[in-house]
Amino acid sequence: MTQDDLKRAVAAAALEDIDSLLTPDAVIGVGTGSTANQFIDLLAARRQDFRGAVASSEATAERLTAHGIDVLELNHVGTVPVYVDGADEIDSQLRMIKGGGAALTREKIVAACAERFVCIADASKFVETLGGFPLPVEVIPMARSYVAREMVKLGITPVYRDGVLTDNGNRILDGFDRLFEQPETMEAQLDALVGVVTNGLFAKRPADVLLLGDAQGVKRLTR
Ligand code: 5RP
Prior knowledge:
Elements: H1 3-17, E1 27-30, H2 34-43, E2 52-55, H3 58-66, E3 83-85, E4 89-90, E5 96-97, H4 104-112, E6 117-122, E7 135-139, H5 144-153, E8 157-160, E9 171-176, H6 183-191, E10 196-199, E11 201-202, E12 209-214, E13 217-222
Parallel strand pairs: 1-2, 1-3, 3-6, 6-12
Antiparallel strand pairs: 4-5, 5-11, 7-9, 7-10, 8-9, 12-13
Helix pairs in contact: 1-2
This protein binds ribulose-5-phosphate.
């Protein structure tokens, strides 16, 4: 089974998992990345069964629209019954690192407004301790050097993601060389730095459900 097969399998499992939430008034939160894209492609077949979607990035909004799914603005929707998204890493408490695709801020906003967060991932994303994957930090452009120096004080090696501008017009610093034994604490410390918009630790608001795919099938884990 290829990684793409696993992504498709967890996307299909997510569609089954949220089946009862697909009602005529429902607006579904949709994430960003290659696993979320598989979900969008499957969700398209059900577009008559729900009202529309809130997108966590411009790329996702474009893909949803191309499939004929209405994209609504989060401010007009309030809460969403469910948010389905991938992750770069996830641990047994369903805390994650996200933002490999630079969409972390909008992803965290939609997740905050979601009654249920369903994470879809292949088994390579499941880790004992978060931090093997470089931690993305979205920064206001003029704060880039300042935040990088503060990250060093926190034991993180920052690397500027050259050429990447987020959907919000900001920059990304990727944090290397630090495992996060207490991701809640680090999430709060990074967010407290002036100039940081968001960081990619999703510990304060972890996933509620993890659909994890490996060669044996899809496992469902909950908190
Ligand atoms: C984008 C993200 C994605 O969820 C994360 O990068 C996983 O992507 P993929 O499904 O392509 O592995 O956080 O900002």
